């Protein structure tokens, strides 16, 4: 409930020139009978789906945003189920301004429609560790395609060493008014990650 409430608040608050980044790290579930993917917030009971959040509902919320660009980074089992195809583009710094002029709705997930590793040996997911490394090494700006490229290879390699084939994904969020732009993260302050 808190996740959807927060998304609703941002739908109202954000204006056309704003950007929105959502990072979901938690449990996910795929119901094969309903062909439906869910986020399971911390308060959710794994045996009772009344608190589960259908990811197609989140996708529809993205359509309501006035903000120019949206990037969803999802670190959960079955997170890749919200995506449709992967479009990776090679971009250079001088293209960032052009890329930001068109509305974007993009997601990066820790894996496809399958379980992912919750712990890579450091009480954190390997996806969150690689995301942190990529953001810390970014000096000025980075688009979501380049961020994905930095994360993808290392997560896949590390997961295979741990006996699981976890392949992150990046794609346009379906049915969300994507117009062909890209989300560009511009470093303005130091990013810190805190984990309990």
Mean pLDDT: 81
Give the proportion of residues in helices: 25-40%
Through-space gap between termini:
22 Å
Percent range for β-strand residues = 15-25%
Number of strands: 9
Description:
It is a single chain. With 196 residues, the chain is of the alpha/beta class. The protein is 30% helix and 21% strand. The chain has a four-stranded mixed β-sheet, with helices on one face. The protein has a three-stranded antiparallel β-sheet with strand order 2-3-4. A two-stranded antiparallel ribbon has the order 7-9. The radius of gyration is 16 Å and the shape is globular.
List the helices and strands and how they pair.
Elements: H1 2-13, E1 19-25, E2 27-31, E3 36-40, E4 53-54, H2 55-64, E5 69-75, H3 96-101, E6 104-109, H4 126-137, E7 141-143, H5 144-161, E8 169-172, E9 184-186
Parallel strand pairs: 1-5, 5-6
Antiparallel strand pairs: 2-3, 3-4, 6-8, 7-9
Helix pairs in contact: 1-2, 4-5
């Amino acid at each position: 409930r808190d996740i959807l409430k927060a998304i609703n608040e941002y739908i109202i608050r954000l204006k056309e020139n704003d950007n929105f980044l959502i990072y979901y790290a938690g449990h996910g579930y795929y119901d094969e009978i309903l062909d439906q993917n869910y986020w399971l917030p911390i308060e959710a009971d794994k045996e009772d789906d009344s608190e589960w959040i259908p990811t197609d509902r989140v996708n529809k919320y993205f359509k309501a945003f006035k903000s120019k660009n949206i990037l969803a980074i999802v670190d959960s089992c079955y997170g890749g189920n919200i995506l449709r195809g992967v479009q990776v583009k090679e971009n250079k710094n001088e293209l960032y301004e052009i890329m930001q002029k068109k509305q974007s709705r993009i997601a990066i997930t820790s894996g496809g429609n399958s379980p992912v590793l919750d712990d890579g040996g450091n009480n954190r997911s390997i996806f969150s560790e690689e995301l942190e490394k990529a953001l810390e090494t970014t000096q000025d700006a980075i688009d979501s395609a380049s961020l994905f490229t930095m994360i993808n290879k290392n997560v896949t390699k590390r997961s295979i060493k741990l006996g699981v084939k976890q392949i992150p994904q990046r794609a346009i969020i379906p049915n969300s008014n994507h117009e062909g732009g890209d989300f560009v993260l511009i470093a303005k302050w130091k990013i810190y990650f805190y984990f309990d």
